[in-house]
Structures are given as C-alpha cells and as structure tokens.
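Entry: Leucine-binding protein domain-containing protein
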Amino acid sequence: MSFTSYKKNLRYVAAAAALVVSTVAHADIKVGIDLSSTGPAAAIGITSKNAMLMWPKTIAGQKAEYIILDDGSDPGVAVRNIRKLISEDHVDVIVGPNVTPAALAALDPVAESQTPMITLIGSASVVEPQEGKRVWAFKMAQTDSAMADVMTRYMSNHNVRTVGFIGFADSYGDSWLNEFTKFATLRHIQVVATERFNRTDASVTGQVLKLMAAKPDAILVAGAGTPSVLPQRTLVERGFKGPIYQTHGIATPEFIKLGGKDVEGTLFPTQPVVVARTLPADHPAKKAAMAFVAAYEAQYGPNSVTQFAGDAAGVYPRLVDAVTRALKTAQPGTPAFRAALRSELEHAHELVVPNGVVNTSVKDHVGLDQRASVMGIIKDGKFTYLSQ
C-alpha cells in the first residue's frame, strides 16, 4: 500500500467519524505534543515525530492544530513544555512524553489542569494504579508485564528451565527484572544469575563470565537500543551456545546494523508493526500494521519503521474515536471538553491500531491484550514474526 493510499485511509477514518457528530461548528482541536527528538532518547522521539507528521489535519471532522515541542530527553524540560502547552496554548490533550521519567513528572501538570495525556512509554507506572493523578493518563505501548508474559510462555514451551539475567542498572532494568521474575516463577523457570550494566559501559566481560558460570539454559539481556548489543556480542565471543533473548526495546534498525552477525537469532517480544510483513494473515492487526509500515517506509525509507513509530501512529485513531463522542457534549477549548475527552478515552472498544486492538475501561488506560504481544526473531538481518 502506498503512502497516498494510507493517507486516504486515515482521511476515511476522520470523514466517517465526522458523519456521526453534530453539524454544529466547533472550535479547532488543539493537540500538544512533547517528544524527545534530541538527546539520549532521540531514536525513539524522532520516529514517533515522523509518524505524527503523517496525521491528517482534521480529527473527527474538526480542524486540528498539532503543536510539537522537543524536551531534549530531559524530564524537567518536558514538564516546562507541558505547562506551556496547557497554560499558553490551551491544548485539549497532551501526547507524549516518550520516556518514563518525563511521563511520571508530567502527571502533576496534567492533573492540575485536568487535561488528558496519552503517553508513549513502555512502563505501566504512569497509569497504574488507576487513582489520583493517574486517572488523567493513558498509554499507547504494550506494558513490560505483557511482554514478559509472552516471552516466558515461549521459553516454557521450548524447554527453558534456567535463565541468566543481565539488565540496565536503572529503572528499565528494574522493571524487567521484576516482571520477568514474576512470570518466570509462574512457569517454573528459575533465574540462576543476575547481573547489571550501564548504558555507557565499554565492557561487560566480568558480568558475562559470571552468567556463563551459572550454566543457564538461556540468557535475557534487558536493555534497549544499541547498548543492548554489547552483552550479546560478549556472550557470543565467549562461546555461549544457548538462546539469547532481548526485550522489545531493541526493535530499531540501528540494533541490527550495529550487532550484525552477533545478533542473528535473537529472540524478543514485540508488537505487530515490527514484524508486520511476516504476521499470520489472520492476525487482527495485520491490515492496519501493513498499511502503516508501507506508508511510513514510502515516506522515510526501507526498513525504517519502529515499534515507537507504530505507537505514535495509533494515537490518531484513538483520538478520532474519543473526540467523535466527546464533541456530542462539549466544545473544544473548554474544561468540559477535556473532561469529556478523558472519559471517552476510557471507552475504546475493539479499536484496531497498527500495534494491536484497544479495549479501554475505567480501570484499564492501556487497553491492549495479548493480540498486541508477539514473539519475534532476527533472521537474515530482519525482524521476523515467530509466534504468539
């Protein structure tokens, strides 16, 4: 499907929604966007921004204004950006941030102003538990918990009984160790060694030798992006012959480019967009995933799509779905509309987006089930579907 066809599909979604809303003229809908387009998280922010630049200029038949700010991967800047978007630009909804510390820090200004926020982070900490400030936050990406679930299920089905763990020495590694351990215990998989490393480390030889000394059936590297190559390359160089698992945070072209032959055969959980071309024909998100991948790569080049771009693409249909209903009760630019929009974001039902199918509720502000979690493998230098 061409970029033009994809744009036509998005316009169709917007036009179809417009038919069911009131013909009364409404004010423009303002969407405030905070992303890490520079700094350490730029690889995530840039692809998210690229996807957003493909959004139609209307939402549910109403003219939309998108205001995009860069936080430089700095939570303090993110909060200042969001306060500006709320107090000076008077936006109806915030989209982003795309790093966990910034999203958590943003809870204060969005709750104070009662402005709904749709974040792009992986951690569920911004939406769980659903109380207090978190009732104003929603999340597009699948959770670490769901990814650990599908990974340990695959491990169990392939006779992995012991695992060595090496993860980032930060909140990402903490989250993955906690979630992985929980599901590993459930499936009678034992974590026999635990090591940590920093994103900027030049060597992890000591940690790898300790992991290998425990003789695990498999090893999990809990990192994101290109720093995750180092432990895997060291394992390969030291002669580890068992399967190596990584997290969904590796699914960028840069990981494969840097890792080369050392990351061939990597097993990892991911979302449909990353392995769209090899998804089974009956996967419920395949059509939407393929349409987005084709359009994105036509715009930005072959093999350029990422999970993060897919998450950002899914925000638009989420907005169309909720705005369509919110417009029946309130005008954009008002507190009543922001409250109505927050409420309607809780009522997505079987809404297909490029990375899954969304069913939200008062208690669930993510709304993704296991249809948004699949296992992948790096095969012939490409991310390839493996199983659900």
